[in-house]
Amino acid sequence: MTSTNAVHVLGIGGSLREGSQSERALRIALDGAAEAGVTTELIAGPELVLPFYDTALAERHERAVRLVEAIRRADGIVVVSPGYHGALSGLVKNALDYVEDLRDDARPYLDGRAVGLAAVAFGWQAAVTTLEQLRTITHALRGWATPLGGSINTAETKFDEAGGASDDKTVRTLRLIGSQVAEFARSRAGH
């Protein structure tokens, strides 16, 4: 739990393109968390360009240090990955590998944190398989995947620059994922 007792939710994801479809989906989910009364933070796209995770290296790039510290402070996390060839992106996977740096913390890995998940891909197969991989990784890192996850097919749904999407159901789903993370984090905090 954060020391200020304010519940804090971190968003991780997107692609190398700033403002990508997956980053826009992540922002909508974080809006849902914020509407539920928590503070939010975003680490997306270009901020996730990190050296490949290596347990043998003690030194960390400044962006990696920022990511690990943000995860450490977070009471809940939302992860949105693009689906590439039926799998999550290397960018997001490498960022999640850095959670290993929390192994010796009092709250190791993602222990006790709700993790909202969504996958954005051009086609249902990649969206669904990517979401399943995100769930598996979350469980391996001791996180609590929210009951609702999002598989978003961008062949049918387009996100806009104004923070919306062509499909209202997708927006509602993403906001609900963010809200579920916030509510779980708040209940763990006793607020």
TrEMBL record:
GO CC, alphabetical: cytosol
Q: From the UniProt annotation, give the residues forming the signal peptide.
A: none
Any Pfam family from its record, for instance, is FMN_red
InterPro entries from the UniProt entry: Flavoprotein-like_sf, FMN_Rdtase-like_dom, NAD(P)H-dep_reductase
Q: Which SUPFAM superfamilies match?
A: Flavoproteins (SSF52218)
The molecular function GO annotations come to: FMN binding; oxidoreductase activity
Annotated NADPH-dependent FMN reductase-like domain ranges read 8-147
According to UniProt, the name of this protein is NADPH-dependent FMN reductase family protein
* Organism of provenance: Amycolatopsis azurea DSM 43854
